[in-house]
Amino acid sequence: MDKEEYSLLYELENTHWWFLAKRIFIETILPQKERKYQILDMGSGTGGLSKFLQAWGHVDCVESSKYAFPFLRKRKLRAIDEDIMRYTCKRNAYDIVCLFDVLYHKDITDDAAIIQKVFTGLVPGGVFCITDCAIPFLYSSHDKRMHARKRYYLSELVKLLEKQGFIVAKRTYIFFFVFPIFFVSRLLNKIIPFSTVGHISPLINSLLIQMCTLEAAMLKYVQFPIGSSVLIKAIKPS
Q1: How many CB atoms lie within 10 A of CB 135?
Q2: Could you tell me the CATH number of the domain that includes residue 56?
Q3: Fewest beta carbons less than 10 Å away: which of 19, 66, 142, 147?
Q4: What is this structure's pTM?
Q5: CA torsion 226→231→236→237, rounded to 10°?
Q6: Can you name the residues that pair with 148 across neighbouring β-strands?
Q7: Which domain does 215 fall in, by range?
Q8: Cross-strand pairs, 131
C-alpha cells in the first residue's frame, strides 16, 4: 500500500463497515472456539485482523512493510519482519493459516509457491482461510494505491488450491448485497481517481454492516455468484 494508506487503515479498521463486515464473513469459516489454536496471519498489515484472530488462540504475524510496524506495536502485536515470498513456514506448526487480501499484492510473484508454504505449515486437518479481491474488471486506481497486481475469479483460486493438495470446504464471493455500489464506485474510479475508503455517515455505516451481517448468515446455505471479494476455506487432508 502507499504509505498514507496504512494510517487510514489503522484509523478505520475497528469502525468502518467494510472492515467489520469482512470480520463477520471470516468468522463463518473459522473453527468453533473449542480450544486455543496456533494461528499464522501472513501479511498482517496494521494488525486489525490479527487482533481479531486472538479470540481463537495464539497468533504469529508476518509483515514486511516498515510502515505497518508502528501500528502493530500500538496493537501490542509482535510480527516477524519477513517478506512472504522468502518466509519459510515451520512444518506442521499451525492449526489455522490466514491470507487476508494478500495474494493480489504486486510483491507476490508466485501464488502457487505461497499456497505450498501454507500447506507445509498447516497440521493435517488444518484450516487455510483466504479473502482476496475479486473480478478483474473492477481493477481501478484504488487497486494501484493498494499496490495490487491483479484481482481474482473464485474458480481461479479454487483450482490453484486443489492443485496444491487442499480440499476446498467453502468457496463463495462476498459483499454480494453491496456489489452494485462497488461496481459503480470502481467504474467511476477508473475514470476519476479518488479514495474509495474513508469516513462515512454513522447511519449508512450501520445499514451496510446490517446488510453484510444478513449476507454472512446466509453463507451457511448459499454460495454467492458474484461479489467484490472472495472467501475460501480450504483443509489440508489428514
Answers
A1: 20
A2: 3.40.50.150
A3: 66
A4: 0.94
A5: -40
A6: 105
A7: 3-235
A8: 100, 231
